[in-house]
Write a structure and sequence with these properties.
Elements lengths: L1 E5 L3 H13 L3 E5 L2 H10 L4 E5 L7 H10 L6 E5 L4 H10 L3 E4 L4 H15 L6 E4 L2 E4 L4 E4 L2 E3 L3 H11 L5 E2 L1 H8 L9 H13 L5 E4 L3 E4 L4
Parallel strand pairs: 1-2, 1-3, 3-4, 4-5
Antiparallel strand pairs: 6-7, 7-8, 8-9, 10-12, 11-12
């Protein structure tokens, strides 16, 4: 999953990026509103953490512009404690949730997980496909109750597919969502990760759709 962090305060931005990376997200960062706006318009994100007090272009204006263009990625806004009107303006502009500074990082991570699940019509933090389960809170995968050991990139590919059961996902889309922008991307490695997953899981769970990509198929 790929997240954009839009925060101009250097220390908080670094803390957010580190916490999200530790949680398994591919993270991009931007510190002024114009850069944030451009990133959201030209890149594909599973969620955005958006500070409303950005320089050059404020977060409300960025959010309104995204929504007017049809951008639907979940957005979690960050507001100052005493700026209650910002919360109202942010929700009215199209935000999906908000957090008031200061906040606990664990709460931010939990809210992001929930936003990403809801954006795919999923309610439970535990995703299932037959006997395969993935706990988004602990990043643990099990098959018929037994733990499955995955590398970080194998997990990211599986997590993305499990958020989209029965949907065809292209190699390019997987590449875009499991790597940060500054990473040296290579869509051919997706085939390697899928091949490794098929050796660790029932091979028929991940179906190849010729010329289009991959699909996670629950067993009959």
């Amino acid at each position: 999953m790929r997240v954009l962090v839009a925060e101009d305060e250097p220390t908080l931005s670094a803390q957010l990026c580190a916490a999200l990376a530790d949680a398994g997200y591919a993270v991009d960062a931007a510190r002024n509103g114009r850069e944030v706006c451009y990133q959201g318009e030209t890149q594909s994100y599973d969620a955005v953490v958006l500070d409303l007090g950005l320089p050059e272009l404020d977060g409300i204006s960025v959010l309104k512009r995204w929504r007017s263009q049809g951008q639907t990625m979940p957005v979690l806004i960050l507001t100052a404690r005493d700026q209650w009107h910002e919360k109202v303006a942010g929700i009215d502009a199209g935000a999906d949730d908000y957090l008031t500074k200061p906040f606990h990082m664990e709460e931010l991570l939990a809210r992001l997980r929930a936003l990403i699940r809801r954006s795919q019509g999923l309610a439970s933090p535990t995703l299932s496909c037959g006997d395969l389960t993935l706990d988004t809170r602990s990043s643990r995968v099990s098959l018929a109750g037994l733990p499955v050991n995955l590398t970080s990139h194998e997990y990211k590919v599986l997590e993305y597919l499990m958020h989209r059961p029965n949907a065809v996902v292209s190699r390019a889309e997987l590449t875009e969502h499991i790597y940060a922008q500054d990473f040296d991307r290579d869509s051919n490695t997706i085939e390697v990760f899928v091949g490794r997953l098929r050796k660790k899981l029932p091979a028929e769970l991940i179906e190849t759709v010729r010329g289009l990509g991959y699909r996670l198929v629950p067993p009959a």
